[in-house]
Amino acid sequence: MYQKRRLGHRSLIVLTMDKTDSEGHRTHIEWTGKADGRFYPVTGDPMSELSYTITGRTLAFTEKREGHVTLTGQIALSPNGRSFTMSKSRVNSTGQRVNSSAVYDLRSPLAPPHRGIRVPD
């Protein structure tokens, strides 16, 4: 879930995720920070830090664990605002790089929660 909050004169992004690792262990994490390219700690995963930047309709993100980059990617909103593409590259538990890409229709009930994103009719 993605939210944008104002704290004084600063805009903060709040990201909430539930993750399941390759062994089936679930983790609830929360991240609060600014989209300024700096790394901010992740609550629920003390070894991780996340960084976000926003340019136009694209949000780029990077995750570091113990100082090493383990995930990079971007989320690009379509020009009509009805879908987005998420592309990411990560290092799995065996050290191999895995690339993936998915397109989500924001009007679909199967799309991930998108609180704060206005979907045109």
Give the topology, please:
Blueprint: E1 2-7, E2 10-20, E3 26-33, E4 40-43, E5 48-55, E6 58-65, E7 68-77, E8 83-91, E9 97-105
Antiparallel strand pairs: 1-2, 2-3, 3-4, 4-5, 5-6, 6-7, 7-8, 8-9
Rounded radius of gyration (Å):
15 Å
Approximate strand percentage = over 45%
Outline the low-pLDDT stretches: 115-121
State the share of residues found in helices, binned by percent: under 10%
Average residue-wise pLDDT: 79
What would you call the structural class? Answer: mainly beta
Name the helix and strand elements from N-terminus to C-terminus, one letter apiece.
Answer: EEEEEEEEE
**E-strand count:** 9
How many helical elements? 0
How would a crystallographer describe the biggest sheet? 9 strands, antiparallel
* End-to-end separation: 21 Å
In which order are the strands of the major sheet placed?
Answer: 1-2-3-4-5-6-7-8-9
| General shape | globular
Explain what the structure shows.
By secondary structure, the chain is mainly β. It has strands at residues 2-7, 10-20, 26-33, 40-43, 48-55, 58-65, 68-77, 83-91, 97-105. The protein has a nine-stranded antiparallel beta sheet with strand order 1-2-3-4-5-6-7-8-9, with no helix packed on it. A hairpin with a 5-residue loop joins strand 2 and strand 3 (26-33). The radius of gyration is 15 Å and the shape is globular. The two termini are 21 Å apart.
